[in-house]
Structure of Protein-glutamate O-methyltransferase CheR:
Amino acid sequence: MAVHVEGGGGLIPANWNGDPEPSGTAAAEGREKLEIELLLEAIYRAYGYDFRNYAYDSIRRRIRHGMQTLGESSVSALIPRILHEPEQMRRLLQSLVINVTEMFRDPSMFKAFREKVVPFLHTYPHIRIWHAGCSTGEEVLSMAILLEEEGLYDKARIYATDIDERALEKARAGIYPLRNMKLYTQNYIRAGGTREFSDYYTADRDAVKFHSSLQRNVMYARHNLATDQSFNEFNVILCRNVLIYFDRKLQNRARRLFHESLAMFGVLALGSRETIRHNDYSECYEAIDDGEKLYRRMR
């Protein structure tokens, strides 16, 4: 319903409250947000990838990168592309997922794990470790090396999961650029490594392949923290620098999933920018090393 205002030159909505129309910038941002919501809903319904509760600013940056990759000038133009051309969805997915990792990333965490967690793991007959969001596998191999050096690997099983199947393929291959080895060697030494890091891989031209024996107790599988459920009980869960990309709702879902999957007195390892505090499960954990984000489940 609209009413005519004398001398006004047009119709004004009856429910108009006197506020001016949104500015051009605000209107454009509102349209973009709606387009992003529609795109993420289409991705979820068509492919099962659920990015709907990722932190908005982060997912918007990644979608804009995907627009450049696919040569589109608007978010809405991506929708028919990904619905009718599965290959374009695979290309867009590479922009939406975050595969930033390195061997022994945050070396002080691995050193603290070696000194403060490993002694407890020695008391277990079997060790199940879940590496959630394992990306291309560098940190999985780091943990395998640590367990090998501490005499624990033969009784351990590492379940390494990620949403991105292409990242998992790279993790299974265990092949990485030779140029990264200087940094990885430095990280390994700072993490308390006890051998020569080069003993674990073979170099060939501009790449290195880590020895297949390091993968003997690793199982890789696709798992989506936004939609999938617990699949085992674990003594250790590592999910480092993943929750920072989720909004609060999805963070809470992941924390509940970890709590349901972690055995009593099991260890949860988070990323350097993540916290165990301010959620429904905060009181269920005690700090093993709060600075390195290592926590033990107590109830």
User: Anything to note?
Assistant: Residues 252 and 279 are 7 Å apart (CA to CA). The first strand starts at residue 2 and ends at 4. The longest helix spans residues 24-47. Confidence is low (pLDDT under 50) at residues 1-12.
